[in-house]
């Protein structure tokens, strides 16, 4: 796949219907030979549109106007490329807890949560957020996570969490303004509600920080899982993480996750894990598949906005 293909696919399958600004910008980049040459000088794993767009936002550059974006990137390419090389797309969307909740609340309580690819750990607090599934509400407080649901078994209350830990190659610290600024830059331009949600979720995490361990999802997972307290149900989970991982290591990770005591909850794009016999996805932007212990249960939107249950 060429750089142009990557940006065109992002415009069509990820940004369309979600971010008109990023759809327009990605389309423009896919047709700009000069920008494509610059991006092509980066390692292929750094071609991600959202990574480049977030770096430009972090550096104070424009993403609303493609011409202004082009000028900024060309004029400041050494600084832009250096930042792209050292950064990872670590979107930490607390809204994803809304699609995890029906599974987490149905497991034997209390829970010991271990998130793989935890970023700053904001998805480790499903018990602290409030949820709104149409007219059905769960929990109290702020932020309130909205999720449109179809045929989904809804919980009556949040789960009970007695231990929470995260594993990441580059953990972020919600008490560090620079790390929070990067999380903010990763939010798409039109999504003011997600910025409000980030601030509210970051305040919760900062008041009671989780255990965040720097490490590899395959090599270091068993040792961290062994730290979970006895008497709690261990839940290893991840959302939109495994696409960063080469195929053979994904398969090895799945074997490790299955072998651990407790449960494994995955929320990844359908082609990342490769489930057989999936029903057709809902119309609209690209969807993830929510699965428990390798069994697919529902289609979910990437930021937790919606889910369609089929399990």
Mean pLDDT: 95
Could you tell me how far the N terminus lies from the C terminus, measured between alpha carbons in angstroms? 33 Å
- Specify the oligomeric state: single chain
Which sequence of strands runs across the widest sheet? 5-12-11-10-9-8-1-6-7
The appropriate CATH architecture of the largest domain is 3-Layer(aba) Sandwich
Briefly note the structural class of the backbone.
alpha/beta
**Per CATH, what is the topology of the largest domain?**
Rossmann fold
Hey, roughly how much beta strand do the residues contain?
Answer: 15-25%
Q: Quickly name the level 1 CATH class of the largest domain.
A: Alpha Beta
The structural domain count equals 2
Largest sheet: number of strands, sense, barrel closure: 9 strands, mixed
* Helical residues, percent: 25-40%
| CA-atom Rg in angstroms | 19 Å
Strand tally is: 12
Specify the number of helices: 12
3D shape = globular
Poorly predicted sequence stretches spanning 5 or more consecutive residues: none
What are the SSEs and their pairings?
Layout: H1 3-15, H2 20-30, H3 33-40, H4 49-58, H5 66-75, H6 77-86, H7 97-104, E1 111-116, E2 130-133, E3 136-138, E4 144-146, E5 148-150, E6 161-168, H8 177-185, H9 192-207, E7 211-214, H10 221-225, E8 233-239, H11 247-259, E9 263-269, H12 270-273, E10 287-292, E11 295-301, E12 306-309
Parallel strand pairs: 1-6, 1-8, 2-4, 5-12, 6-7, 8-9
Antiparallel strand pairs: 2-3, 9-10, 10-11, 11-12
């Amino acid at each position: 796949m060429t750089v142009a293909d990557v940006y065109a696919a992002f415009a069509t399958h990820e940004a369309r219907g979600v971010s008109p600004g990023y759809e327009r910008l990605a389309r423009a980049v896919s047709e700009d030979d000069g920008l494509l040459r610059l991006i092509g000088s980066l390692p292929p794993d750094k071609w991600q549109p959202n990574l480049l767009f977030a770096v430009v936002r972090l550096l104070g550059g424009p993403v609303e106007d493609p011409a202004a974006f082009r000028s900024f990137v060309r004029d400041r390419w050494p600084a832009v490329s250096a930042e792209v090389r050292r950064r990872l797309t670590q979107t930490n969307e607390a809204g994803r807890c809304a699609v995890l909740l029906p599974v987490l609340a149905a497991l034997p309580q209390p829970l010991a949560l271990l998130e793989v690819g935890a970023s700053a750990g904001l998805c480790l607090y499903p018990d602290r957020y409030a949820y709104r599934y149409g007219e059905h509400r769960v929990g109290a407080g702020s932020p309130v996570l909205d999720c449109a649901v179809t045929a989904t078994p809804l919980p009556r209350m949040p789960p009970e969490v007695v231990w929470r830990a995260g594993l990441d190659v580059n953990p972020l610290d919600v008490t560090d303004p620079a790390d929070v600024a990067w999380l903010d830059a990763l939010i798409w331009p039109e999504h003011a509600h997600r910025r409000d949600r980030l601030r509210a979720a970051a305040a919760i995490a900062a008041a009671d920080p989780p255990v965040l361990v720097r490490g590899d999802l395959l090599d270091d997972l068993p040792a961290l899982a062994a730290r979970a307290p006895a008497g709690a149900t261990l839940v290893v989970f991840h959302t939109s993480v495994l696409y960063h991982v080469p195929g053979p290591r994904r398969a090895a990770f799945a074997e490790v996750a299955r072998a651990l005591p407790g449960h494994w909850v995955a929320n990844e794009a359908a082609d990342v894990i490769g489930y057989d016999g999936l029903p057709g996805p809902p119309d609209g932007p690209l969807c993830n598949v929510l699965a428990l212990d390798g069994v697919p249960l529902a289609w979910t939107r990437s930021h937790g906005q919606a889910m369609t249950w089929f399990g």
